[in-house]
Amino acid sequence: MPATFRFALNDLPPEAEGLRAEVREFLKKEFSGAAPVKRAKSWGGFDREFSRRVGARGWIGMTWPKTYGGHERSFLERYVVMEEMLAAGAPVSAHWVADRQSGPLLLRFGTEEQRQRILPGIVRGELAFAIGMSEPDSGSDLASIRTRATKTEGGYLVNGTKVWTSNAHLSDYAISLFRTQVVPDKKHEGLTQFLVDLRNTKGITIRPIIDLAGKHHFNEVNFTDAFVPDEARVGNDGDGWKQVTTELGFERSGPERYLSSIALIRELVREVSAKPDDRGTEAVGRMVASLATLRQMSTSVAGMLQAGEPVNLEAAAVKDVGTTFEQSIPELAHALLDVEPTLDSGSDLQQVLGYITQTAPSFSLRGGTREILRGIIARGLGLR
Amino acid sequence: MTELRSLLGDTVTRLFTDLATKELIEAAEKGTWPDKLWRALEEGGLTLPLVPEDAGGAGGTWLDAHVVVRASGRHQAPVPLAETIVAGWLLSRAGLAVPFGPMTLAPVHADERLTLARSAGAVTVSGRATRVPWGRHAEHVVAVGELDGRLTVALIARGAATIEEERNLALEPRDTLVFRDARVVAFGAADVPADAIYLYGAMARAAQMAGALDSCLTQAVRYATERKQFGKPIGNFQAIQQSLAVLAGHVAASGIAAESAFRAAERNDARFEIAVAKVRVGEAAGVGAGIAHQTHGAIGFTYEHSLHFATRRLWSWRAEFGSENAWARQLGRAVAARGADALWSDLTAR
Predict the structure, then answer these.
(1) How many other CB atoms sit within 10 Å of the CB of residue B253?
(2) Quick one: pLDDT at residue A3?
(3) Which terminus of chain B has a smaller tally of CB atoms within 10 A, N or C?
(4) Domains in chain A, ordered, with CATH?
(5) Euclidean distance between CA atoms B305 and B291, whole angstroms
(6) Do B350 and A273 touch (CB under 8 A)?
(7) Could you tell me the domains of chain B?
(8) Tens digit of pLDDT for each residue in B129-188?
């Protein structure tokens, strides 16, 4: 069997711990008194003013070169900022995607002109990004996408539809994967990524897709003869598959893959603290054992990022183990307490349980389904 | 990784690969003491990684010891190596000389006590300790008790005890030892927790389980690539791939949970990490052993196949030095006492 995982223990350096205190102080000022159910929404929350303030503190694009407005700090410092934001339930959506994957993608594969034009705005918390990958007939089988970008003078004409595009209606750009060439029997070839300007491109229609809880964050983005200039192409024509798998590696590598239920965890601990009997403390102990272990795994991935090592396999494992854990928390609430989940009435616990219960199915879908991640792990084991 | 750690890792892996064979484990299960293996471990300097060099040990850290303890689980070595390592550490903490030969720890249950007392110029030990690992084969027993109002580590000749022989599921000796005013060989006050044996024993079992889970994964992946059904290796089927991926996740979680505990032991503040490890690895043991067996089908359920050397140990070890529930309660009580709003800051302070 090949060496599978390399989860090495990683200590966060003193400068990262100093930064943690600053982030906590900032978040305390921003959110003291915020209701637990509001905090539960965390990276569902889209708040441009908040993102600007985060940018002003230097906490977006932390690891990027100063040339592009970045702060040239370590991945471990960035990790601390990310986990503190998530643990506090900060509304990070307006900068999260750009900071996590769109910016790093442009740094790696974008042109100098794209980096100069886009990255400083991301760093300031002024540019919000959506992700243009899935289509109506292409989800897990991402390489089967059909949205065509056909070469024309000075650019490409795009026709097709992207779906599940979170916050497209609120965002400025979407890094999108299009088919620029049809290569028979080679679906991974002929794919190309583009930096699509969602606000200033004619031929783009954005329509809401309402989720099961009645909320609007998803969208369907339709392209009808939408003109995307050559300057918007990211990387070489045809290199899209390699780039998009790199981007997915960025997407899966962060602590958001095990902290989605942290608000509910906190409310469960609160309940048990009020009456710490054997049954309650056993359940809390098991929950915290998983939580602490996942944090070690996630910190280990941050250490690998800092060392410049590939993290695809380890990130897939953290996300698979992490989402399974996140989804177990509502179950635990039902096993432990006589509690009915609610929408907007009842206790904090009830409302947080209501919100997490209705969001939990997405945990093991977004950023690659559980089955896709396990396929990646199986490949790492040498089974595929 | 330090030089000592990679040296220990290489040595222990080579030694177990050569000596901890299927035949040797089977013989041990029938009651034969694997003397050759034990002597090789002692000669290789693997039994006392935490004992200072000037006292005859390797002068290493808990993370060095981790490499050895985990390997002993990975190879299902039928010897009290983990127990001897913890015993040697306790003796060193008390400034006592560390004897050669296998040692064990007692009592292993949180509610049992061995009582130390002064009598006619000597120190004696009394009490009953159940399920003592490798009791009949150990030359010495190390206990922690109170003497003159101070926590004291005592070295006791195993011959001073009467023994009732019992075994765990893996046919490892788990004997009841009864001491009646038996003179201790040596004793010394030490700055260790009152439940040090229970605590560090749990940590050792967590690392051994992580090792045994490694072994389950390796065996299951190998079997899935070799065994053919419907004209192809069963590992080609998504159903098998997906469940082995789940096993791999548990193996990864177990490895880092156990190693974190050893790292925390290095700073003498490991109670949180040990509880986390014992609970999390124990859960992984149950799920992991199940997946490994499911992958192997009927052949893995036979005595002839070697999978059960790992899985029977996992089933017993998860309940030794405290059950998952007991450790979860200890952890949960500590978390509940600190309150919901301290959870995250406490977690990130570890």
Answers:
(1) 31
(2) 56
(3) N
(4) 14-129 (1.10.540.10), 131-244 (2.40.110.10), 245-380 (1.20.140.10)
(5) 16
(6) no
(7) 1-79 (1.10.540.10), 101-192 (2.40.110.10), 196-348 (1.20.140.10)
(8) 999 999 999 999 999 999 999 999 999 999 999 999 999 999 999 999 999 999 999 999
Q: What pLDDT digit, counting tens, does each position of B250-266 carry? A: 999 999 999 999 999 99
Contact of B221 with A384, CB cutoff 8 Å? no
- Closest-CA distance, A262 to chain B, in angstroms, reads 9
Q: Which residues of chain A are within 8 Å of residue B242 when distances are taken between CB atoms?
A: 371, 374-375, 378
Range list of β-strands (E), chain A:
129-132, 148-152, 155-162, 173-179, 191-197, 204-210, 216-229, 233-234
Question: A153-170: b or e for each residue (b if 16 or more CB lie within 10 Å)?
Answer: eebbbbbbbbbbbbbbbb
pLDDT in tens, A238-257: 999 999 999 998 888 888 88
| For residue B293, pLDDT beyond 70 | yes
d(CA A204, CA A201) in angstroms, rounded, equals: 6
CA distance B292 to B219: 8
Contacts of B336 in chain A (CB under 8 A): 269, 272-273, 276, 280-281, 284
CB contact under 8 Å between A284 and B224, yes or no, is no
Residue of B259, B274, B327, B348 to mutate for A, most A C-beta atoms under 10 A = B348
Instruction: Answer whether residue A322 shows pLDDT above 60.
Output: yes
Inter-chain CB proximity A266 and B341 less than 8 Å: yes
pLDDT bucket at A190, cuts 50 / 70 / 90: very high
Can you tell me the mean pLDDT for A364-374?
Answer: 95
Q: Rounded to a whole number, what is the distance in Å from the CA of B125 to chain A's nearest CA?
A: 34
Q: Indicate which of B227, B273, B276 best probes the interface with A, i.e. most A CBs within 10 Å of its own CB.
A: B276
